[in-house]
Write a structure and sequence with these properties.
single chain; about 500 residues; alpha/beta; Udp-n-acetylmuramoylalanyl-d-glutamate--2,6- Diaminopimelate Ligase, Chain: A, domain 1; UDP-N-acetylmuramoyl-L-alanine:D-glutamate ligase; Protein-Tyrosine Phosphatase, Chain A; 6-stranded mixed beta sheet; 15 helices; 23 strands; binds ligand UAG; binds adenosine-5'-triphosphate; binds 2,6-diaminopimelic acid; binds magnesium ion
């Protein structure tokens, strides 16, 4: 594709550079090691590196244009200059990455992005659409799931994935917009019909200075990313929902609110059952009952937001609400892994924030006749302030709380556990080795008890060390829970 055609399609002036018309563009890269002849290179100032340092090497490798800050030094290639080069790069790349699926929706919020994206995909699939989700679980279609390593992949991977999916015939994609992804313009480019906000609570305060800054990063979804005239689907029951609604209104988006305070899908009642729950909702003045085969108030919220996204993008109401009774468990989100020898169910959940841990405990509480035994930890090289809060929530909410390791990364695991334990009352237990901690919880469980293993969900490894010494030791909570239950005589 000619660079001039890209500029025209993206409505970008190439800054008076001569010869743009004749330049052939063969691809886009943000890492100079991926530059080939004909590539447009995005040189960004990052947390670890200054991409501008690699401009000469990128040009040497054949970059024909460089998107970078105005004061970057670009010699021997066209310089697309902008104070926000990541955004300009995404816009310039968008016409290159075609086709794209017709219907794109993005989900932001501290917790519930993966679940909502995946449940949206399932609802579309059941409505006969070719659908995919992109997020923490990777790129998921009805046939397979391929990991990308990040929740929100970099912009080139993201746009290339969308084109790949469209070529396979996928027309509908729901994807997660993490705050890192939003603040780094990783998901900019294609046309996004609707955005959803699930909730906001403490996380990532190592990356964002304050909760307000963290919220502002998320609100770029409504302020800038969703297309003019698109829809904002908002979970209305969160403390930050009112502010999210203000952003959507200020931008002139259509509002679709969901929850007990929702105006579009109003949750009237929720009754937990054995393996699921009954939801009573009001939609357009009509009361409906939904048999949701997932447990927990949090998963009810995510399923209803997913339904909101489907309806906001043209889905049929009767079909969508009916299909909710067939929704499948999202991998690692209140997923039942095994039954202990004494008959206690063992659930795996991805709760790695205080609010999520509270939600996971609340999800299981109605199913506990005896004691709730929780095994949990906090990740290394991440927000430290959340650790004692997680400790407090586990010791208040669970009957037995065992602190263990969860991806210590570059930190001393014992020091992380000590910070978690600082928030816990008497009786807190500490077993660093995750396998041993899971084993102890399962061995201890009696009939009527429920075991919760929180923090790693779908993850397949324990990350130990950082930089050159980083190792990922294979570890899967579901497998370990089954092995431990099996060894002890459960199933
Ligand atoms: C803090 C953060 O988000 N970092 C991500 C970000 O880095 P950055 O833009 O700051 O880049 P950098 O590494 O400083 O490098 C600057 C630029 O130089 C380029 N470069 C760098 C080295 C080189 O040799 N050549 C070269 O061209 C890089 O490609 C980059 O464009 O962009 C990189 C390229 O896409 C990511 O790999 C990197 O993710 C790191 C590994 C990471 O751990 N990110 C986590 C925190 C993250 O993003 N998590 C979120 C949220 C999770 C959640 O949902 O809670 C996620 O979306 O996954
Ligand atoms: N709507 C919700 N409200 C409160 N907690 C939730 C909600 N949805 C999920 N959770 C909790 O958060 C955990 C992670 O859920 P999920 O993976 O869907 O969120 P996420 O936003 O994608 O997380 P991440 O930022 O790590 O990608 C769940 O296992 C659960 O404990
Ligand atoms: N997207 C989150 C995942 C955390 C998962 C948890 N197991 C941990 O390692 O803290 C993060 O990178 O902060
Ligand atoms: Mg996620």
């Amino acid at each position: 594709m000619k660079l001039s055609a890209l500029c025209k399609a993206a409505n970008i002036a190439p800054g008076g550079a001569a010869g743009v018309a004749d330049i052939n563009v063969t691809g886009f890269a943000i890492d100079h090691r991926k530059v080939a002849p004909g590539t447009v290179f995005g040189a960004f100032r990052g947390a670890k590196f200054n991409g501008e340092d690699f401009i000469p090497a990128a040009i040497e490798a054949g970059a024909v244009a460089v998107v970078a800050a105005p004061d970057a030094k670009v010699e021997g290639a066209v310089h697309f200059a902008d104070a926000e080069p990541r955004r300009l790069f995404a816009r310039l790349a968008a016409p290159f990455f075609t086709p794209v699926p017709e219907t794109l929706v993005a989900i932001t919020g501290t917790n519930g992005k993966t679940s909502t994206a995946e449940l949206t995909r399932q609802l579309w699939h059941m409505a006969g659409q070719r659908a995919a989700s992109i997020g923490t679980l990777g790129v998921t279609t009805s046939g397979e799931s391929v990991s990308t390593g990040l929740t929100t992949p970099d912009n080139v991977t993201f746009q290339a994935n969308l084109t790949g999916l469209a070529r396979e015939g996928v027309t509908h994609v729901a994807y997660e917009a993490s705050s890192h992804g939003l603040s780094q313009y990783r998901i900019e480019g294609p046309r996004v019909s609707a955005g959803a906000f699930t909730n906001l609570s403490r996380d990532h305060l190592d990356y964002h200075a304050t909760m307000e800054e963290y919220f502002a990063a998320k609100m770029r979804l409504f302020d800038e990313v969703v297309v003019d005239g698109g829809t904002a689907v908002i979970w209305a029951d969160d403390a930050w929902s009112g502010k999210a609604i203000e952003h959507a209104k200020a931008r002139g988006l259509k509002l679709f609110t969901v929850g007990t305070k929702g105006e579009d899908i109003r949750l009237l009642g929720r009754t937990p059952g054995g393996l699921g729950q009954k939801l009573e909702i009001d939609y357009l003045g009509q009361t409906r009952t939904i048999d949701l085969p997932l447990i927990g108030g949090y998963q009810a919220a995510n399923a209803l937001v997913a339904a909101g996204l489907v309806l906001a993008t043209g889905g049929d109401a009767n079909g969508t609400f009916d299909a909710m009774k067939w929704l499948g468990t999202v991998r690692g989100r209140i997923e039942r892994a095994a039954i202990s020898p004494a008959g206690a169910p063992i659930y795996i959940d991805y709760a790695h924030t205080p609010d999520a841990l509270e939600a996971a405990i609340a999800a299981l509480r109605p199913h506990v006749a005896g004691r709730l035994i929780a095994v949990f930890g906090a990740g290394g090289d991440r927000d430290q302030g959340k650790r004692p809060e997680m400790g407090r929530i586990a010791s208040e909410g669970a009957d037995v709380a065992i602190v263990t390791d969860d991806n210590p990364r570059g930190e001393d695991p014992a020091a992380i556990r000590a910070m978690v334990l600082a928030g816990m009352g008497e009786g807190a237990r500490e077993i660093g080795d995750r396998r041993a901690a899971i084993g102890e919880a399962i061995a201890e469980a009696r009939a009527g008890d429920v075991v919760l293993i929180a923090g790693k969900g779908h993850e397949q490894g324990q990350i130990i060390g950082s930089g050159e010494t980083m190792r990922v030791l294979p570890f899967d909570d579901v497998t370990v829970a089954r092995e431990m239950a099996g060894t002890l005589g459960g199933k």
